[in-house]
Amino acid sequence: MLTRREFVLVICGLSLASLTGCGKEETVVAHCEPQPIHDGDECAVCGMYITEYPGPKAQVCLRDGRVLKFCSTNDLFVWALQPDSVPQLLRAYVHDMALTDWERPSDDAFIEADIAVFVTDTPLQGAMGPALVSFGSREAAETFMQEHGGRTLAYSEVDWETLNELVKQGFDWD
């Protein structure tokens, strides 16, 4: 039988042990894979139907297990560059446009966004105007640029200035 003192120590120890997990953020990592994009899926930023527009799409897995889908890589970055988005982001995916069709990108062509090479300053239009075109390799991006021009950026180099330049290009449409 426990003495009164031992009982109090056990209860205090259990209380402290239960508090140990408090304040720690749980991460849902188990099933963070690209999801198919369906006809009725809406962009998490602009609300447009994703499949109605050409060019690369994107999606993110959040730490709480939710998946957000985007009609363009441009909108992915509009979301990802928000300060409150950074702590929520577990993983981001974009289409490797060397592996899929421009008009209707395949769900099988998603790659992790942080390894992608992005091409900007091209004449190609996506859902949000001039596209930020994603590729799985620098070689594929350079092959694309031989035909369409542009310049390459790494995921970490895409910033608000890049997005603003894409918007300015959109106003130069003929």
Keywords summarizing the entry:
4 helices, 174 residues, four-stranded antiparallel sheet, three-stranded antiparallel sheet, alpha+beta
How much of the polypeptide forms β-strand, as a percent range? 15-25%
Q: So how many helices?
A: 4
Write down the overall geometry: globular
Give the number of domains. Answer: 1
Order of helices and strands: HEEHEEEEEEHEH
Which runs of at least 5 residues are low in confidence (pLDDT < 50)? 5-28
Radius of gyration, whole Å: 22 Å
Largest sheet: 4 strands, antiparallel
Instruction: Indicate the mean pLDDT.
Output: 86
Count the E strands: 9
Distance between the termini: 88 Å
Helical content stands at 25-40%
Helix/strand structural class: alpha+beta
What's the arrangement of strands in the largest beta sheet? 2-1-3-4
Write the layout of secondary structure elements.
Layout: H1 4-19, E1 58-62, E2 67-70, H2 73-80, E3 89-95, E4 110-112, E5 117-120, E6 125-126, E7 129-130, E8 133-135, H3 138-148, E9 151-154, H4 160-170
Antiparallel strand pairs: 1-2, 1-3, 3-4, 5-8, 5-9, 6-7
Overall description:
This protein is α+β, with helices and mostly antiparallel strands. Strands 2-1-3-4 form a four-stranded antiparallel β-sheet. Strands 8-5-9 form a three-stranded antiparallel β-sheet, covered by helices on one side. It has a two-stranded antiparallel sheet with strand order 6-7. The radius of gyration is 22 Å and the shape is globular. Helix content is 26%, strand content 20%. A hairpin with a 2-residue loop joins β6 (125-126) and β7. The chain has one domain. InterPro entries: N2O_reductase_NosL (IPR008719).
